[in-house]
Design goal:
Elements: H1 2-10, E1 12-14, H2 16-27, H3 31-54, E2 59-65, E3 68-73, H4 81-89, H5 94-107, H6 113-130, H7 138-150, H8 153-178, H9 183-201, H10 203-216, E4 223-228, H11 234-238, E5 246-251, E6 257-260, H12 261-271, H13 278-281
Parallel strand pairs: 1-2, 4-5
Antiparallel strand pairs: 2-3, 5-6
Helix pairs in contact: 2-9, 3-4, 4-7, 5-6, 7-8, 8-9, 10-12
Length: 283
């Protein structure tokens, strides 16, 4: 446990925008509150980190952000869906036991009722905020993992980011119209907007990493059949791969040919141009 905590602390990186929140709290005389908030955020991220290490994920760093934190991992989009969901929800779940401990302390008069109420609202706010279906919040990660289970990864990736971006724009416009002078709110909205832009720009890299991971997986439960015309390019066929199942690809022509997913990916990465027609590759 101590080794895990030390590893967690070493990976903490403070985002510059985080200092804006700290400065705002100190400037307005809320130093005690920001210390407690900082502690709660660390526990939240510790939950993500512990879950990632439980599933043997590679954690690059723990970013402390204006709205909380984010565990940056190498396995984005490549691990089983149940792992991605668990790692995402283990952060918000920490707020439940934290609130329970605070309630016990209030009942034994170790903290006042007012302090408990403030602590309860803090945890409730972080819990609900992080479960919003917006990237890169925990709720957004859970939603993306679930969507990628039902529709092709490439399609899920693009549609999720567009829906998430639309929700962010609508939500930001609504909140900023109510609190236009709220500095922290501006920082949070701008940061989430930047996160969407960066994720959209890196979507091809994430997709390629997803395909490379598929080549390394030895066994996947469940099989899905894809029927494609011989004129489709290898690249277009990969756009129809769904996460969590293996694929049998049927090339529909006069003499239908069936190949497996690994044959497709071997041709895509090593043997032919991604834009080569699949009917010319497999005859």
């Amino acid at each position: 446990m101590i080794k895990l905590i030390i590893e967690f602390i070493r990976k903490i990186k403070i985002n510059p925008a985080f200092w804006v929140v700290i400065f705002g709290a100190v400037y307005t005389g809320h130093f005690r509150e920001i210390i407690v908030w900082f502690f709660v955020v660390l526990i939240h991220e510790m939950g993500h980190f512990a879950g990632a290490r439980l599933f043997n994920w590679r954690v690059s760093r723990i970013d402390l952000l204006p709205f909380g934190g984010a565990a940056v991992v190498e396995e984005h989009g490549t691990r089983p869906i149940h792992e991605e969901v668990w790692v995402a929800v283990l952060g918000p779940l920490q707020h439940i036991w934290l609130t329970g401990v605070a309630y016990i302390l209030s009942q034994t008069n170790l903290i006042s009722a007012n302090d408990f109420y403030w602590f309860f609202i803090l945890n409730l706010t972080l819990f609900l905020f992080n479960l919003l279906p917006i990237w890169p919040l925990d709720g957004g990660k859970v939603l993306f993992a679930l969507v990628s289970k039902w529709i092709p990864f490439k399609e899920a990736q693009q549609k999720f980011l567009m829906v998430s971006g639309a929700l962010l724009v609508i939500g930001s416009a609504w909140q900023l119209s109510l609190q236009p002078s709220h500095l922290n709110l501006w920082v949070i909205c701008l940061f989430l907007g930047l996160a969407h832009i960066l994720e959209w720009r890196s979507r091809h890299y994430v997709f390629i990493r997803f395909l490379l991971n598929r080549m390394q997986q030895s066994s996947i439960k469940g099989t899905r059949t894809i029927i494609v015309p011989p004129t489709w390019s290898l690249s277009k066929v990969t756009h129809h791969l769904v996460k969590g199942v293996s694929h049998s690809i049927v090339i529909k022509n006069f003499n239908p040919i069936t190949i497996n997913e690994k044959q497709l990916l071997e041709a895509y990465f090593h043997n032919h141009s991604p834009e080569c027609a699949i009917g010319k590759v497999f005859r």
